[in-house]
Each structure stands twice: as structure tokens, then as C-alpha cells.
């Protein structure tokens, strides 16, 4: 199915997503499409055709335009994967990421103060302590002092998981189920039935957690939602469980993937490592550039037009699906000169890696704090860090919604 092409108006609509050539660059066809009309027809896995938008300005325009909906049951909404049907069948289960305003902002606003930049910064001492604990153990003589370690297994998977578990007040012993089931939800390698089963198990776990906080609130995000919202009648448990699952799923695999690829750049790009060693103050700008460069939400964001919209030279009709390619927008030379070069000195803050508009990533400050702290800790504890296998042997995970590495073996 993936290599099929559909024909409309005598023109073939290429299959989407396209395959990458170089594993750290988006598929080369995206640059060709960006040079053409504001939107191009592409064919999804199920044979349906949607619009693909690739230029930075047009991606931003659509994401900032209320005439495009994020509700999956809307006519024409792109079904990006076989499991998209699951979400379509139970739209409330996806929480506010798949809702429009005012419903979206009613739920999102209950969480905004938990995810402010200041709150993320307050977590840094805890993050540093956690990272120093992990890395001091990794570089110890008992671990073979210099023999290869896998930074994905040891760092980029456990750190975001421990952070969200700490925010939710989940004890260490109960993290495994949460990690395992949320990983299934973002991996395209599972059947819709397996995904549904994982989602149900995760929901049962979260429901129990919420109920325990209703009985006895503590000092964590879930307890604050219970006290401030549930007890006031503003939120019920059936809304709260998908909201908590959204935070777990949206925040875990994404941060793991972006941190893994950022660490890959750190160990393979001499300019990046040298620049950060010379000027540690460069770290926040470098992390923005790494977000732009890697754009891990690799297949982009889906929306549907609820009215006819003129986008540049293309008329998108009500009821047509649109896919916004964040990776193509982030390599747009109109905004980022020499876009395929990773340049920690550039101002990359207008990147689209966290989306744009009302759904722009709620957890972006937290994600950036985690990635900055992971990079800084690796530089601190592993001064001569380098790949322990040839680049060609790295295990890039193409079939997941957040592009990333299965493992990152390094030595130092
Ligand atoms: C939304 C990317 C980390 C929570 C989004 C969106 C993107 C994104 C592109 C927009 C989705 C859309 O418009 O349809 C990322 C990346 C991350 C990351 C690249 C890591 C590098 C996190 C973290 C959390 C989080 C750590 C929280 C723990 C959310 C939530 C939404 C969201 C709740 C929905 C916001 C809304 O609909 O209003 N993220 N994210 N994300 N993200 Fe993130």
C-alpha cells in the first residue's frame, strides 16, 4: 500500500509519509514540494488523499487558523495510521489535544500553571541530582569504567519517565506499567487491538491513581487537579483519566526521542560539542536548534478544514484533510539559511517542533529543561564521549510517530 500512488486531475499524489534518505534529514521530496504550491496532494496508507503543507509560513498559518479543526471525527480528518480510527471512534479519549476551543481551552487552562517555564526551572535541581546519580553510576569502575553504555536505555527513556512519575506522585515500583503501555501507544508497530488493550490498561492504572488521590490528596499534579477542579465540579474522572494519559503519552516518547537524537548530535557533531564546551551559556539556544533540526514529530500534525480556505495559491475546501509537515517547515530556507546545517549559534526559536497556535506543546519548557540537563550532564560526566559503534549501525526507529533511536551506544 505504501508505494501506491493515487491519480487526481491527471497528477499522481505521492504516498505519505515518504522515506528518509539520510537518517537525520527529512525525506528529500519534502524540499521539492516546499518549492511548489502552498499545498500538495498526497496519499495516505489507506488510499485517502489529503493536502500536505511544507513551507514554514503556511504551516504556521494553518495551525493558527481556527477554520481548521483538530477534532478527529470532523469530515475529511486525515487518518494518519490504522490506529487513528480508534481515536476517531472515541474522541473524548484523546482529551484536549483533539478538541477545539472552547472545550480545548477549558481543559488546557486547568494545567497551564503546572507547565510554566518557572515551574520547569524549579525542577532543575531535582533533575541534576537524578542525572548525577545515573551518570556517576554509569561511569563507575563497577560498570566497567569506559565500556560502552546505551544512553537511550540508561538516560533518555528513564529520565522523562521518572520526571512525569514524580509530577504525578507515582511510586518507583509502579513506573514499569506506565512506561511499557505508553510506549505501545506511540509505536506504529502495534495493531489497533494491541493499542486499544494498552490504552485500557493505562486508563485503569490512572483511574486507580486518581481515585486514590480523591480519597487522600497529596502534593502532586493529580492531587491539585482533584482539589482545584474535581471537588469544585469543574472536571470529572472520565475527563481526568484521558487528560493524565495525554500528559504521559505526549510527554514521554517525544522527550525520549528528542533527547536521544540531541545526544547523537552531541557525540557526532564536533562543532556542537566544542561550542558547548567553550560556552555552556549556549546550551538553551543549541537545544532550540536541535529541536528545529531533528523535528521528531516526523509525520507532522493533522487537521481538517471546516470552511473553504485560500492558502497561498491553493484553495482548500471545507471537509478536506490537511497534514502540516513540521520537519519540512523547520528546514525552510526562507526562515533558516542553510537549513540542513546544525548551527548552535543560530536563533532557531521560531521552529515548529512544538507546533503552533492553540495546541502548541504544553510541556515545551519541561522538555527543554530535561534535554538541556541531559546534555549538560553527559558533557560533565563523559568528557570524551563518542559513538561506540559505526554510525551506519545505529538503530533509527522509522515506524514511530516520534522519530528516534532504539539505542545509542557510547564510550568516553
Ligand atoms: C502538544 C511536540 C514534550 C505535553 C504538542 C504538539 C507538538 C508537541 C508538536 C502539538 C500537537 C498538535 O498541535 O496537534 C512535543 C515535543 C516534545 C514534547 C517535540 C519533546 C521534545 C512534551 C512534554 C509534555 C507534553 C514533556 C508534558 C509532560 C503536550 C500536551 C499537548 C502537546 C499536553 C497538547 C496541547 C494542546 O492540545 O493544547 N507537543 N512535545 N509535550 N504536548 Fe508536547
Automatic annotation (TrEMBL):
Keywords, comma-separated and alphabetical: Heme, Iron, Metal-binding, Monooxygenase, Oxidoreductase
Region annotation (Disordered) ranges: 1-22
InterPro entries recorded: Cyt_P450, Cyt_P450_B, Cyt_P450_CS, Cyt_P450_sf
Basic and acidic residues: bias regions: 1-11
Recorded GO MF terms: heme binding; iron ion binding; monooxygenase activity; oxidoreductase activity, acting on paired donors, with incorporation or reduction of molecular oxygen
A Pfam family hit: p450
PROSITE patterns named in the record: CYTOCHROME_P450 (PS00086)
Keyword set includes Signal: no
Database matches in CDD domains: CYP105-like
Family: Belongs to the cytochrome P450 family.
Protein name per Swiss-Prot or TrEMBL: Cytochrome P450
Naturally occurring in which organism (per UniProt): Streptomyces finlayi
Source taxonomy: Bacteria, Bacillati, Actinomycetota, Actinomycetes, Kitasatosporales
